[in-house]
Amino acid sequence: MLLFAPFIVCVSALILDYLIGEPRRLHPVVGFGRLVTALEKGLNTAPDIPLRSLFSGVLAVLLATVPIMALAIWASVRLDGLLLMLVQAVVLWLAISLRGLAEHGRAVAAPLAEGNLDVARKQVSRIVSRKASDLDGRGVAAAATESMLENGADAVFASLFWFLIAGIPGVVMHRMVNTLDAMWGYRNRRFLYFGRAAARLDDLMGWVPARLTALSYMLSGNRKLAWQCWRKQAPQWDSPNAGPVMAAGAGALNVRLGGPSPYPSGVKQRPILGGAQEASSTSIEAAITLVRHGVWLWLAVVGAITTLIFAVVYL
């Protein structure tokens, strides 16, 4: 039973996600976001002084994560048996968002397929930071498809990976760091130095999960094209982790992503990723399916490895 516990917990968390989805009220990630917003306002008082801003960012990361990590470690040490598995399943369920990912993607895909561009723009503005009002139909579809692929890595696969590696402390730490990077990891005047510690820590914790996610996308789609895009296009992307994930995902779907994108600060020229097909409502749904297939693949691998270990040790 103990040997199969991680596999059982992963399956249980995914079932909870499928049946319930994200909590509509009192979500701990939302509460954590409010906490760190107040923390940033109190500490990020000198963004134009690099060393002071950098030190404040490191202090903010420590203040935000250490108390919660202490609680997570305490729970892992003090709890055992079925109670520990139950707590692990709930924590992992709160960290992953497979159902929420699909809901956000389909909220864009449905009006886009019906030709209702205004509604599609409004929905995509909730999941990307681009200037949605300047996006045409292809731009909306590309933005949503990219979000499905990238957030599949951050909100699903990385959480599963860190739970399997380090239990409750691992998944909690990753979710906190990823949230800090999402809130502070901007390369603008206010966060250039303050958010650097959170951004680098997120890059470090996401390095292995991102490449395992890219491998999962490759194995679940057009393998040859996904590998070519991963190898040739990913190094051109400015993010060391998003590059492999999005390049492999775009190749697996044979969809063209990247290119110029409008942001509030102006148009950002990004490298082209993927294949020849234009992004559309169909590519959004295909990206959701690709993430789901990757999850089934991970469960199959974890189950097979666990069974093999059991056979070697006990048979």
Which labels suit this protein?
globular; 4% strand; 315 residues; mainly alpha
List the helices and strands and how they pair.
Blueprint: H1 5-20, H2 28-43, H3 50-78, H4 81-95, H5 98-113, H6 117-124, H7 137-184, H8 196-220, H9 223-232, H10 242-253, E1 256-258, E2 261-263, E3 266-268, E4 272-274, H11 281-314
Antiparallel strand pairs: 1-4, 2-3
Helix pairs in contact: 1-4, 2-3, 2-7, 3-7, 4-7, 5-6, 5-7, 5-11, 6-7, 7-8, 7-10, 7-11, 8-9, 8-10, 8-11, 9-10
What can you see in these coordinates?
This protein has 315 residues and is mainly α. It has one domain. It has eleven helices and four strands, in the order ααααααααααββββα. A two-stranded antiparallel ribbon has the order 1-4. Strand 2 and strand 3 form a beta hairpin. Helix 2 runs antiparallel to helix 3 and helix 7 crosses helix 11. The radius of gyration is 20 Å and the shape is globular. It starts with a helix and ends with a helix. The mean pLDDT is 94.
Average pLDDT metric: 94
- Taken together, the total number of domains comes to 1
Unreliable stretches covering 5 or more consecutive residues: none
Helical percentage: over 70%
Report how far the terminal alpha carbons are from each other: 15 Å
Discrete helix count: 11
**Which descriptor suits the 3D outline?**
globular
Number of E-type strands:
4
Biggest beta-sheet profile: 2 strands, antiparallel
- Strand percentage: under 5%
The radius of gyration over CA amounts to 20 Å
Assembly of the depicted chains = single chain
What is the succession of H and E elements?
A: HHHHHHHHHHEEEEH
Q: Which structural class do you get from the secondary structure elements? A: mainly alpha
What strand order characterises the main sheet? 1-4
